[in-house]
């Protein structure tokens, strides 16, 4: 299982996990209990655990497309079909908005 740490305005908000068959997003207990907002409308804090066969649309929205996707994948030596690796490689700093995704806390 691969794990990514999801931050909202620099605060640990949750964990994105991937195994061979599914993705799981899980809010951190402290973040879920806080007054901070959900990271996305379709990932409300009222429900703490989310599962999907595909990468959640919110996280896909953080990824580049077209020529930018090809450029970054070539530069970082990432398979363009590996969205999780792209997310880890690109969503650490280069996101629009308050959410970042990192491979280590």
Summarize the structure.
This protein is an alpha+beta fold and 105 residues long.
Topology record:
Layout: E1 2-8, E2 11-18, E3 23-27, H1 29-33, E4 49-52, H2 57-60, H3 66-76, H4 83-90, E5 99-102
Your description of this structure?
It is a single chain. This protein has 105 residues and is of the alpha+beta class. The protein has one domain (2-102). 27% of the residues lie in helices and 27% in strands. The chain is built from 4 helices and 5 strands; from the N terminus they run E-E-E-H-E-H-H-H-E. The chain has a 5-stranded antiparallel sheet with strand order 4-3-2-1-5. A hairpin with a 4-residue loop joins strand 2 and strand 3 (23-27). The protein is globular and about 40 Å long. It starts with a strand and ends with a strand.
Question: Measured on Cα atoms, how large is the radius of gyration?
Answer: 13 Å
Strands, total number: 5
| Beginning-to-end CA distance, first to last residue | 16 Å
- SSE order: EEEHEHHHE
Low-confidence stretches: none
Overall average residue pLDDT: 90
The tally of structural domains comes to 1
Q: Major sheet, described briefly?
A: 5 strands, antiparallel
Task: Quickly give the structural class.
Answer: alpha+beta
Percent strand equals 25-35%
Strand order of the largest sheet: 4-3-2-1-5
Can you give the helix content as a percent range?
Answer: 25-40%
Dominant shape? globular
Helix tally? 4
